[in-house]
Amino acid sequence: MANCELPAERRRACLGFGLPLAFLLLAASLVLAANGAQEGGAVTKAVEYRHFPVIGSRVAVWIIAQLHLMFGAFVLAVPMFALIIEFIGYKTGDKRYDQLAYEFTRLLSVSFSFTASLGALLTFMLFILYPKVMNYLTQIFSWTFFPYVLLFFLEAVFLYSYYYGWGKFHPVTHLLIGLALNLVGIGIIFIADAWLTFMNTPRGIDQAGHLVNLWEAINNYIWMPINIHRLIANISFGGSIAAAYGAYRFLASSTPEERAHYDWMGYVGNFIAISALLPLPFAGYWLGTEIYAYSQTLGVVLMGGTFSWLFIIQAVLIGNLFLAANYYLWVSMQRIEGAERYYRFIKYLLASITLCFLVWATPHSLVATVQEARAMGGQHHPILGVLGVMSAKNTAVNILILTTYISFLLYRRGNKEPTVSWARTGNLIQFAIFAFAVVFVIFLGVYGYFVEAKVRIRLSVPQVLTVLLTMIVVTLIDVFMFKNARIKGPIRWGEMPARSQYALFFIAITFAWTMGLMGYVRSGMRQHWHVYNVMKDTSPDAYTPTLGFAANVITITVLIFFSFIAVIFWLTGLTSKKSSGAKWEASA
Amino acid sequence: MKPLVVLILALVLLGLRFLRLSRVLWVPVWWLASYVFLVYGIEPPLPRSIILMFMGIITLSLLAYFSVDSQTLSAAWGAIVRFVTDRRYTIPLAMVVVALPAAVGWVAYRNASKAPNPPLFGRTIHPPPPIEITFKGKKINLTEADNPFRALEKSDPDKFRQHVARGRVIYFQNCVFCHGDNLNGEGLFAHGFDPLPANFADPTTIAMLQESYLFWRIAKGGPGLPEESAPWASAMPAWEKFLSEEDIWDVILFLYDYTGYRPRAKESLE
Ligand code: HEM
Q1: Other Cβ atoms closer than 10 A to A311
Q2: Which helix (H) or strand (E) holds B133?
Q3: A374 located within any domain
């Protein structure tokens, strides 16, 4: 497929390589020019900061860094699931999967140039605007720059050969290229994570801040937790953006075949996003624990001080994500014949999600007037105070995850009728497992109130394990129970109301906003430090902005991101105008 | 909770079940029921900021419920169109047309006629402590410091009781006026302050803090708070000028002893 369009694509390939290269050259020459101006002048003292006009250096770097992060996340995530989908296609011989994987990959080439350009821009802004910090970080990490650049070039090579080589190599060779692409991508993110985690939890240096052990500097307290958290979050984010692309094409499509195809694409993207979303809170808690372990003070800054409000916002965002994801699944059940049987459960699932959402979003410190506080008998409400602490929130998140999982299970069963003789028993066992898991998770949550904080933090581990184990065991039972199931009717792909597609947009935007918020939390929690407890931020921007200001910057960043994404969707849509849909041979 | 309100709500909802309401009507019913429960069903009343947030979440959920099923949605749409166009509904329609602006007017009136309130802002109640403080010229590292008399609880209970008794005297000589004789923050002067003096009986104050945190708060008081906690607003005095180091550790022992809470233990690294 798509071979016919080679000339146009080759042109784009040149763009893909050329744009970042041009940018790098521009950046390099500007850096040189700036340095030259410095040396040439009468100034002898080393410059520590330069000022960016109008919005200031910090906001400028903030926005560019966040944009680069979002594009980077997308570019690293898409190959991961493209590869898995391609592999499924290879194993099952179903051409549709291969085509879908290709379609996901098609989003990559333009995004890759955007990522590289933004990365170059970021580097060059950092070196010009923050020379003191960058000098220091260069001293520490200079040896990691070479592998980084090397990996970056390999990424470009693998990415374009993966993309343009589609259908031209032996399938196994092509899959191996995809694998290499992913390994290189993971290498890139791990190296970059070392730099930024070092700034939060520096290690491997002496009292004066000189490097003693490079490996320790890389493998600092939160390096692995951030690696893992980001990797999972990136997959989730990438899935949601790809789903948004499906939704965009779905809404723009004119034929039933096209609609069916893009409905399916949106569904798969969303499936990826939500599957990766489920383990994310656990990874987040691990990250939080490591921050505490590094420094109690840093931990309290994160969870107790001004930043605790950001976690309330995060809870609202993620609650919305879960709500929208479930909503999409429930609406999707309408295109499955036989799923009507399960409609009546929706209201209970919704009630569970709403309750967990309410608990999760309950703040620990309340905003209350004096009268209200007096009526409550203190700054804390006796009932809300109980909900605002970790035990309650952990419990709520765990139940939220279980509920979403149940929605998936019902969706999966939609048109299937088990034929095995033990179906009744199987259902009962599954129900018993769920009931036990819910009771046990809630029991642990309540028990948490009666033990010391030290023990309480550890209670989250059995909670998590219970939920994970439940999901694994129930899935196993389900797989066997629905083997050779009777199919009640086809899935009518494409027969989706438009509002489900807007739910996909909503999920993508909420994800991007969450990412912007958490990126701010990660760098903001250092407060007036560039490198925590090692190098002070002495620039005029060394203060913590108000929540409203931060929210505005994040919103603007997200808006810019989606206007870029719109361009990418449009460009990608142009190439596939002819080929898409044609392959959808009324299969279901 | 107010059992009466909850009971009435439950009865009304149960009663409506027998009326076989359409799914469309259940949405506003649940919305109203949640609102009534949050505003009138919880004792002590919730702050407005929380009610707003909770209602926002509930509204979203109900909208999701309402729109999940295409049939319900089109039924609802049809019902609204019929309500506006059908002659049978002219009188109820007229009532709605009058009632909606009237409700908005009433809310506006109520807001405008309220007694003036001090502005509301989110103060951080438990800000992160500094790593190190200077107490009467001596440097104390808060991450490492611990109550030196806590160990006596096991090793020498009699000695421990003496320290608690000293703490009691210190409390009733200095703190009782604000923090109250039941340690519940309702001292004689309490009504004059915003923020209110801390309520130590509340499980979210000393029960979740480490003793070194309390030491910092007692030694440095309101003035020692960081910006985000509005140091200018807190009436908590800085006791380092009046009490010795031992006094402060003793009064801390007393606070925990009287309320029956245990201090938060230090987390060990790795
Ligand atoms: C509740 C416990 C959680 C904590 C303590 C936590 C903490 C953090 C922190 C500190 C960051 C910044 C790291 C960075 O910029 O790379 C981050 C990033 C992120 N978190 Fe979480 N998180 C938690 C849960 C979640 C959940 C449940 C989600 C689900 C959506 C999530 C989504 C994200 C995303 C999308 C990023 C950005 C990743 C990136 O920069 O590539 N987090 N998280």
Answers
A1: 22
A2: strand B132-135
A3: no
pTM comes to 0.81
Which positions 356-395 of A are in contact with B (Cβ < 8 Å)? 357-358, 361-386, 388-389
Q: Which residue of A has its CA nearest to B66?
A: A347
Cα-to-chain-centroid distance, residue A509: 11
Q: Domain range for residue A546?
A: 7-336+491-574
For chain A positions 403-462, those within 8 Å of chain B (CB to CB) are: 449, 452-454, 457
Q: Decide if pLDDT at A28 tops 60.
A: no
Contacts of B184 in chain A (CB under 8 A): 377-378
CB-CB contact of A273 with A240 (8 Å): yes
* Number of structural domains found in chain A: 1
A234/A76 Cα distance (integer angstroms): 7
- So what's the pLDDT on residue A48? 85
Secondary element (H or E) of residue B258: helix B245-259
Q: For residues A322 and A404, is the Cβ–Cβ distance under 8 A?
A: yes
d(CA A322, CA A360): 12
| ipTM score of complex | 0.82
- What pLDDT sits at residue A24? 56
Helix (H/G/I), strand (E/B), else coil: A462: helix
Tell me the two tokens of residue A230.
């980001």
CA angle, B59 then B61 then B64, to 5°: 110
List phi, psi (to 5°) of B144: -100, -30
With residues binned 3-state (H G I as helix, E B as strand, rest as coil), the percentages for chain A, rounded to 5, are: 75, 0, 20
Residues A441, B211: Cα–Cα separation, whole Å: 30
The conformational region for residue B147 under phi > 0 = left, psi -120 to 50 = alpha, else beta, is: beta
pLDDT at B47 over 50: yes
Residue B145 CA to ligand 1 centre (angstroms): 32
Strand partners, A487: A416
Between A307 and B35, the more confident residue is B35
Alpha helices by DSSP H, A448-546: 453-481, 498-524
Reported as half-sphere exposure (CB side, CA atoms, 13 A), residue B1 has a value of: 6
Partner-chain contact B204 A364, CB within 8 Å: yes
Residue A417, strand partner residues: A486
**pLDDT reported for residue A581:** 45
Residues of B in contact with A353 (CB under 8 A): 61
Measured distance CA(A384)–CA(A394) in Å, rounded: 15
Whether a cis peptide bond, with omega within 30° of 0, leads into B263 is no
Map out the domains of chain B with their CATH numbers: 3-113 (no CATH), 132-259 (1.10.760.10)
CA distance A422 to A40: 85
> Residues A552-567: pLDDT tens digits?
999 999 999 999 999 9
Q: Is A179 in the pocket of ligand 1 (CB under 6 A)?
A: no
